[in-house]
Task: inverse folding
């Protein structure tokens, strides 16, 4: 169950990536110490690439296009930028069964529930991290990314959802190391919610997913 004092933080202006990392490091330590509440932070970053712990140098196709940061999370290369909503999730898994696999499944279902609010069917795929949508004729594109880190059973990093980013910016990397598939967004699919509408959906669907009894099979 969610703690009653979960803090929601919403940033209206782009947040520099090092500042976000510094904030998460501090909050994770405070959550573990019991001096600050758990938190979900909704934000955007200026255009940049992040490298997860499994990133391969050859997947950074244009290293001089945008700043590149080591993220410390799992996964490979990811793009962040305007038009993409990032949600950093800082929760204490000591209170939730200490099950990282269940936590990742919760994140996946959270994104899927949010997309459904806008008439988009998001799906997961074995062997492919993230949330995917079918485009017809055998085509599938990625619309949401997931990358997490857990320290002393406290989570950080989280998910990103493409609302209306410049999709050409993904061309400087091999997103998540996957070459066979493309990237899409809500607007690219013909759905045009505002950022505030997406934030509202993310918040409601977060509670819908995380407040229920945990079941890794769903």
Result:
């Amino acid at each position: 169950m969610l703690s009653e004092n979960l803090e929601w933080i919403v940033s209206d202006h782009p947040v520099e990536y090092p500042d976000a990392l510094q904030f998460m490091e501090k909050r994770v330590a405070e959550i573990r110490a019991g001096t600050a509440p758990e938190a979900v932070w909704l934000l955007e970053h200026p255009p940049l690439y992040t490298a997860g712990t499994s990133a391969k140098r050859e997947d950074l196709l244009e290293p001089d296009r945008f700043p590149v940061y080591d993220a410390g999370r799992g996964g490979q290369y990811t793009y962040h930028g305007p038009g993409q909503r990032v949600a950093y999730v800082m929760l204490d898994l000591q209170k939730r069964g200490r099950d990282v696999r269940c936590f990742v499944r919760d994140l996946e279902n959270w994104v899927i529930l949010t997309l459904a609010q806008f008439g988009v069917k998001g799906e997961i795929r074995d062997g492919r991290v993230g949330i995917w949508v079918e485009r017809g004729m055998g085509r599938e594109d990625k619309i949401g990314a997931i990358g997490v880190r857990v320290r002393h059973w406290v989570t950080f990093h989280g998910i990103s959802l493409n609302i209306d980013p410049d999709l050409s910016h993904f061309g400087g990397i091999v997103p998540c190391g996957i070459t066979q598939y493309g990237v899409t967004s809500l607007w690219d699919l013909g759905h045009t919610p505002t950022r505030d509408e997406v934030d509202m959906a993310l918040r409601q669907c977060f509670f819908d997913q995380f407040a229920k009894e945990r079941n890794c099979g769903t």
